[in-house]
Amino acid sequence: MDAASIIKACGGDGALAKGTGSALNTVAYWRRRESIPAEHWAAIVTLSGGEVTLAQLAALRAQRVVRRRAAPVALVSA
């Protein structure tokens, strides 16, 4: 499940922003980054009515870590 699907399951950007006490642009940022801070996970599970699980949120986080580690490194030639 990607960040956009998680946000949609919570009722959209506005509902998630209100439910987590976050700004609307913050929720949009989570979607772009494909990462949602762990301090909001419990609220997300509640807002989604259980459609989103802690395991799905943890998997999303793990995917981000893997992508970040796999990012190409620019080599500078001497």
Folded structure, characterized:
This protein has 78 residues and is an all-alpha fold. It has a single domain (3-69), classed as lambda repressor-like DNA-binding domains (434 Repressor (Amino-terminal Domain), Orthogonal Bundle). It has helices at residues 3-9, 13-20, 24-33, 41-47, 54-69. The longest helix has 16 residues, at 54-69. The chain is globular. The termini are far apart. 23% of the residues are buried.
Total beta strands = 0
Count of separate structural domains: 1
Average pLDDT score: 90
Number of helices: 5
CATH T-level fold name: 434 Repressor (Amino-terminal Domain)
Overall geometry comes to: globular
Sequence stretches where pLDDT stays below 50 over 5 or more residues: none
Distance between the termini: 43 Å
What is the highest CATH level, the class?
Answer: Mainly Alpha
Order of SSEs, N→C?
Answer: HHHHH
Question: Strand content of the residues, in percent?
Answer: under 5%
CATH-defined architecture: Orthogonal Bundle
CATH level 4 superfamily:
lambda repressor-like DNA-binding domains
Helix content: 55-70%
Class computed from helices, strands and strand pairing: mainly alpha
How many strands, which pairing sense, and closed or not: the largest β-sheet?
none
